[in-house]
Structure formats: structure tokens, C-alpha cells
């Protein structure tokens, strides 16, 4: 902390922004009152004040301290976000219950997508033998239950969108800053992370399974052909033309779930005009920073009890970077971005290549 009051500068070894910290004094006399404020301008002002009151000899001796303060100037929070064990407080319970009801379905959705084999063989036989009604019926009967499954995936994306909106409202609402929200409301931050983890997992599976697009394209072609012949099949009652059009747009995206969340975040910002856009982007950049720090800091990383938490943390970091890039006016890769992209990519490249290749491709 750099604490300034009544023309007295005090430097202590703590980094408590929010109130009296009582840390060990390493420069000056008195007790430290903590660094109040969180804007980068405030940090710079305190640093300038420090140098104003130091002699040249003292300034020369402060090199190591300035290296430490450099991290603080980046506004990069250093706290442990418990992705494994965070439990909701009473204040979080209402939103947590709402989001939890959606997330309970997520594991089942991923399991269904992972076991999705498609109807490629039946479709090929039907296309090669257009006059064989038995093969046409066999292909149709194979595709219909798969399309019903794809419809469930799409409808789940809409519920996930609403859950994300509830979390954004909770994690950006005044009077707390985004960093305070994430530190105080760790159960909601964990759910936000679980949504991002699911999203990237779903999209990775979808990108490696061309059967999804092939099955749905065959279904639409068959529906169109029967409509021209004035025939209506029973399956149309479940997936009508309007639903089919929306599903087609969804699955046409390389990363449909991430696109849904990006659109939802952008919509949240545009609809909440009284809420500064920085509150939303700072929430995302803070989450990215927390994940990076936990991955690169042995003291934090050793607290993970599950080996899968490392991959979970990386997926969350990449997810919030991409959301930030979509929502922020200049994006995540600009020099003025609050996300340390070099540091994030460095952390990813230090991991086994087979576990991060998809994440690096998502950033590209």
C-alpha cells in the first residue's frame, strides 16, 4: 500500500485497497490506512506522491519495491477463487438456485453430444438409392430422433443465455466493483465459470463432429421436398419451419454456444444503459486475470485438489477473454486492453499441447 495523508507518505508490505490494513511499515512512520480507490489513475497518483517525498538516494533504493508495485498498477487482483468448494451465501441463494437448475442439465447435454454418432450411413444409402422407399424411410427414421436431440441442445442454449444474464446482473450491480463481487460472491463466480467451461466443452465437441450439420441438412432437405409434394411428416410438428430456421443459424456457427453467450453479453450491455460498460468488461477482465494468476502461482495452484481444475481454469480464462473481445469497444488484443494477453497465452503454452490446442485455436 502507498498511503498518503496530511503530507505524510507511508508504504507498507500489504496490498489492501479497501480499508485500514495495519501492514508492516517499510517506509515512513505511522500506521497504514490502506490504499483507497481502485482506478489506475489513483495508483499512479500515489506512486507520484511517493516519489515527490523521497530523496534521490531513497528513490534509487526503491527499485525492487517498484517491481512489486508494477503488478498493482496493472490492477490485477491476487486472490484465490475457489472453483471447487465455493458455497452460496444467503445473499447469493436466489440467483444461485436459478442458475443451478440450468447447470444440472449441462453434464447430460455434454454426455449426449459426446455419444452423438449421426446417421451418416443411412443418409448415404438413401441418397445413392433415391428410388428405394425402404431406404428413404430408414434414413428418415434414423435422423428424426437425432434432430429432436439437436433441438434440445438449442433450447438449452436459450436457458443458458438467461442464466448468464442473471449472473451478469448479480456480478456487476452497484455499489461493489467487479473485483469485490468476484471475491465476495464466489459461488456465483463459480457458476459463471461453469457456464464458460460447459460452453467451450460443447463447442469443442461440436466442431469435431460433422455429423451434426450433415444430419440437420438432410432433415431440412427432406422437409422441403415433402412440402413441395404437399406432404407433411409427423416430425414437423416437433421441429417446425421457424424452429428449423433458428436451429440452422445456431449450428451454422463454428462455436454456437460461445456465440450465444457473446450475443447475450452484448445484449446485456446495450439494454442496461445506466450501467457503465466498464462494469461488465471489468468483470470479465478480472475473471481472466484471477484465472491466470491462479494458474501461474504455485501457492494458489497447489490448493487445487482435483487435477481437472487446471483445465477448468484454462477454459474459463479463454472463455472470458473471448467474451471481453466481443463486448469491449477495442477488444481484448488491443494495447489498452485490461487483459494481459501475453501472460494468458504464455500460461496456456506451458501446459501439455494436447490439452490446450483447442483453447489456443479458439483465441486465434
Can you give a write-up of this model?
The chain is mainly alpha-helical. The chain has 17 helices and three strands. It has helices spanning 40-52, 56-60, 63-73, 93-103, 106-114, 120-128, 133-172, 178-184, 186-207, 211-228, 241-252, 256-271, 277-296, 298-301, 308-327, 341-349, 353-363, and strands at residues 2-5, 8-12, 25-27. The protein has a three-stranded antiparallel β-sheet with strand order 1-2-3, with helices on one face. A hairpin with a 2-residue loop joins β1 (2-5) and β2. α7 crosses α10 (211-228) and α12 (256-271) packs across α15 (308-327). The chain is elongated. Mean pLDDT is 81; it is low at 36-41 and 56-74.
Give short descriptive properties of this protein.
364 residues; mainly alpha; 3-stranded antiparallel β-sheet; elongated; small GTPase binding; membrane; CYRI
Amino acid at each position: 500500500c502507498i498511503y498518503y495523508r496530511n503530507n505524510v507518505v507511508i508504504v507498507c508490505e500489504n496490498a489492501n485497497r479497501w480499508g485500514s490494513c495495519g501492514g508492516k511499515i517499510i517506509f515512513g512512520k505511522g500506521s497504514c490506512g490502506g490504499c483507497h480507490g481502485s482506478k489506475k489513475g489513483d495508483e499512479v497518483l500515489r506512486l507520484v506522491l511517493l516519489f515527490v517525498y523521497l530523496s534521490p538516494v531513497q528513490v534509487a533504493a526503491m527499485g525492487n519495491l517498484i517491481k512489486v508495485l508494477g503488478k498493482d498498477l496493472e490492477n490485477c487482483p491476487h486472490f484465490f477463487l475457489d472453483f471447487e468448494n465455493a458455497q452460496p451465501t444467503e445473499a447469493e441463494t436466489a440467483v444461485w438456485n436459478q442458475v443451478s437448475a440450468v447447470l444440472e442439465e449441462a453434464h447430460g447435454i455434454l454426455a449426449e453430444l459426446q455419444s452423438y454418432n449421426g446417421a451418416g450411413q443411412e443418409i448415404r444409402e438413401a441418397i445413392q438409392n433415391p428410388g428405394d422407399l425402404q431406404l428413404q424411410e430408414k434414413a428418415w427414421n434414423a435422423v428424426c430422433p437425432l434432430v429432436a436431440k439437436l433441438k434440445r441442445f438449442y433450447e438449452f442454449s436459450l436457458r443458458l443465455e438467461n442464466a448468464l444474464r442473471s449472473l451478469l446482473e448479480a456480478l456487476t450491480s452497484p455499489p461493489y466493483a467487479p473485483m469485490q463481487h468476484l471475491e465476495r460472491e464466489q459461488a456465483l463466480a463459480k457458476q459463471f465459470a461453469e457456464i464458460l467451461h460447459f460452453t467451450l466443452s460443447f463447442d469443442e465437441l461440436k466442431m469435431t463432429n460433422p455429423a451434426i450439420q450433415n444430419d440437420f441438412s438432410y432433415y431440412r432437405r427432406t422437409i422441403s421436398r415433402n412440402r413441395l409434394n404437399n406432404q407433411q411428416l409427423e416430425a414437423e410438428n416437433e421441429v417446425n419451419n421457424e424452429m428449423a430456421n433458428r436451429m440452422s443459424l445456431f449450428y451454422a456457427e463454428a462455436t454456437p454456444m460461445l456465440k450465444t453467450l457473446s450475443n447475450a453479453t452484448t445484449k446485456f450491455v446495450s439494454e442496461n444503459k445506466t450501467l457503465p460498460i466498464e462494469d461488465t468488461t471489468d468483470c470479465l477482465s478480472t475473471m481472466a486475470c484471477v484465472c491466470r494468476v491462479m494458474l501461474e502461482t504455485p501457492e494458489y495452484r497447489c490448493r487445487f485438489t482435483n487435477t481437472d481444475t487446471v483445465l477448468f481454469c484454462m477454459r474459463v480464462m479463454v472463455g472470458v477473454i473471448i467474451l471481453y473481445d466481443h463486448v469491449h469497444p477495442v477488444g481484448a488484443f488491443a494495447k489498452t486492453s485490461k487483459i494481459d494477453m501475453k501472460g494468458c497465452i504464455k500460461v496456456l503454452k506451458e501446459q501439455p499441447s494436447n490439452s490446450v490446442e483447442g483453447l489456443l485455436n479458439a483465441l486465434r
